[in-house]
Design a protein that fits this description.
CATH superfamily: RbsD-like domain
CATH topology: RbsD-like fold
Order of helices and strands: EEHEHEHEEH
Strand order of the largest sheet: 2-5-1-6-3-4
Number of helices: 4
Structural class: alpha/beta
Helix content: 25-40%
CATH class: Alpha Beta
Low-confidence stretches: none
Largest sheet: 6 strands, mixed
Shape: elongated
Number of domains: 1
């Protein structure tokens, strides 16, 4: 965890998630329950001094029916309980996989495969700086911009 920083990702994915070939994408088979792995990762991230989690999930998940994927409703309830304190961005699966592929060309992406067998259940955790907010960054950039000629832009 100490080596990972903002712009790195940790993905907790189902067993059919593809092995990506971007150089910065590292995949580890956990052979563990997906919700347990999500809880462990969030506990680890939250106890760090330098990063916080920004969570995305597949936009398709709410539409996966139990008749096609037994246990989908139960999973949605379990993961909602674990993630209830976090805002969650909903992103189409193909888009987020493409984004991860391009991110892996510059930044490290850790993919933790689980024994989950329900589709579209991946939890995508982008790490952001814990001690420097987007608002602080914006204020600093505005100051830089208004500092005048000779100031860094």
């Amino acid at each position: 965890m100490p080596l990972l920083g903002h712009r790195n990702w940790i993905l907790v994915v189902d067993s059919a998630y593809p092995l990506q070939s971007s150089p910065g994408v590292e995949t580890i088979e956990t052979n563990s329950d997906q919700v347990d792995v999500v809880q462990y990762v969030l506990k680890t991230v939250n106890s760090s001094i330098h990063v916080r989690p920004v969570i995305s999930m597949d936009a398709e998940l709410p539409f996966v029916p139990d008749q096609d994927a037994p246990g989908a409703s139960a999973y949605r309830s379990r993961i909602a309980s674990v993630l209830h304190d976090y805002p969650i961005e909903s992103v189409l699966h193909d888009k987020i996989i493409a984004d991860i592929g391009s991110t892996g060309s510059q930044f490290h992406v850790l993919v933790l495969k689980t024994n989950m067998t329900i589709p579209y259940t991946s939890v995508f955790i982008r790490l952001d700086c814990k001690y420097w907010s987007a608002d602080a960054e914006k204020r600093m950039r505005e100051k830089m911009s208004s500092a005048g000629p000779g100031s860094p832009k």
